[in-house]
Write a structure and sequence with these properties.
Number of domains: 2
Radius of gyration: 22 Å
CATH architecture of the largest domain: Sandwich
Structural class: alpha+beta
Largest sheet: 6 strands, antiparallel
Number of strands: 22
Helix content: 10-25%
Amino acid sequence: MPNSTAFEHLKELHEKYARHDLRGMWQRDGSSSPKLQPRLWPWQEVAPLLDESLRTVRLPEDTDQRVIGLAAPNFSSGAVYVSYQLLNPGEKVPSHRHTPAQMRFIIQGTGAYTTSDGERMFMEPGDLLVQPNWSWHGTANIGEGPIYWLDIQDRNLVNYLGAFRRELWPNDEVQPTVHPENYYSKVAGGLRPVKSAGASQILPPTHYKWNDTLKAVQELTETAAVNPYDGLMFEYTNPSTGGHTLPTLSAQIQLLQPSQKTREHRHTGITMYFVVKGQGTTTVTGSTTIEWRERDCFMLPPFQWHSHQNSSMNERAILFTVSDRPALEALGLYHEEGR
């Protein structure tokens, strides 16, 4: 870049620019914001803070939702926004809807349900609940213990585009149940009600139950091709479209067989990982090693070389992963390469 005196002859022009909030491309000083770095959130360190939050952050006196975001420096630069959300027995989150799409991966606890566009979906560990943008959802914990889940949204992207909107259900209540269990899974199947002209094109919510997911993974593992960079990968396919989980986000289950070590690759877009089972390491750019174990979360920045290894000689590792690949593909910006 030119030195500080290179544009002395343009000083007066630059001052005029500044008065009108203008800036020439040649005025860039070459500096940039700090680069996003890989980050690990170990469960053994996070869990005590979540427990303390359950005891001290009051609903609804302090906040309407007990949400604790994963806030690494510059993490807001990608489409994926991840947080923990917690509910004590007897607590509720009134129904609401917003333009960011949302997914919930249940970490711990039973007895709570989310009413998604009129269908009550009970939440069990390992379940994935998907609420597309502008779909109603509210949660109540009628169980005997607290419940913890991961909230994943494309909030950063929606905010960047200036498209955030939010609406609350009347009287701070959870939306009444008007559909039977598994209603939307049936509606998204081969036989669907005929839509009237001008009907909403909003995707229906989806409930991927862990037992069903695990069964499908077991069956598919026998014939699925092993990806040299990720092991075995299975995407939560949207039943309505047959495509990615959401238009902006992709959720996947990743399996690493005992002692398996993958080759290095890199790709555009941010990827978040939650360790469902097992332990292992992820090496980034050849020098940074993330050691992960059950219930840890970790994040990989865009376009950094990385590889995974299962540390166990006897047990497979299961990872739940989320990326913003669909948004990048839609914009023609997704790129992947290996070595």
